[in-house]
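Lab notes, practical 5.
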Amino acid sequence: MESINKLISTAEAMLRDGFDARAFLNWQMWAFAALLTTVGPSSYYTQNFRQFTSDKSPRGLLAGEGVLMAVIEELLQCLN
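Output from the prediction step:
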């Protein structure tokens, strides 16, 4: 869960400080890997992440950040 929180923070910084397409592609790769590790390949979030982030713009970054935030929410609900 910590890696996903770091990826969310990174997305927020990228949105705040200026979008960089190369940084986005790197972030997208790491976020997808974190989803695979955290919720597995058959999760709705993992299966749809690439579609949600297919727009290589701040909009795609924001959508990807939203996916990661939803995963965190779901994991927290499972812990309670």
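Observations recorded by the TA: Residues 55 and 61 are 8 Å apart (CA to CA). Residues 58-79 form the longest helix (22 residues).
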